[in-house]
Amino acid sequence: MMKTIMAAVLVFTFGLCGCAGMSQTQQTTLSGGAMGAAGGAIIGAIAGNAGLGAAIGGAAGATGGFLYGKSKESEAAAYQRGYQQGRQGN
Predict the structure, then answer these.
(1) Is pLDDT of 13 > 80?
(2) What is the SS3 assignment for 22?
(3) Region of 57 on the Ramachandran plot (φ > 0 left; ψ -120 to 50 alpha; else beta)
(4) Span 4-23, mean pLDDT?
(5) Which of 10, 12, 37, 90 could bridge to 54 as Cys pair (CB 3.0-4.6 Å)?
């Protein structure tokens, strides 16, 4: 039991440290893929094929995470352009 808990803590810690140098798009893509795979595995297990559900869910989640991240990066860039234009106008 103790080994299982230690392994889970290590995996969680390494997972958090691994995201430190990632851009927002990379983080949302990875998070979306992980959440999609987990959700797909659960639905797939109910339907009878957890592996296929995880693969489909992971792909859909990663795609959604990527698109969301790109949207947020574009929004931040537009904000910065507007901010700089406003500062130049003063």
Answers:
(1) no
(2) coil
(3) alpha
(4) 65
(5) 37
- Non-local CB neighbours of 84 within 8 Å, separated by 6+ positions: none
The overall average pLDDT reported for the chain is 84
Judge whether 50 and 38 are in contact, CB under 8 Å: no
pLDDT confidence of residue 90 = 63
Which residues, 6+ apart, have CB-to-CB distance to 68 below 8 Å? 28, 32
pLDDT in tens, 32-55: 988 998 899 889 889 888 889 999
User: What is d(CA 79, CA 70) in angstroms, rounded to the nearest whole number?
Assistant: 14
Neighbouring C-beta atoms of residue 6, cutoff 10 Å: 10
Nearest alpha-carbon partner for 60 in 84, 88, 86, 41: 41
Structure tokens at 77: 């860039």
The ranges assigned to domains in the chain are: 23-89
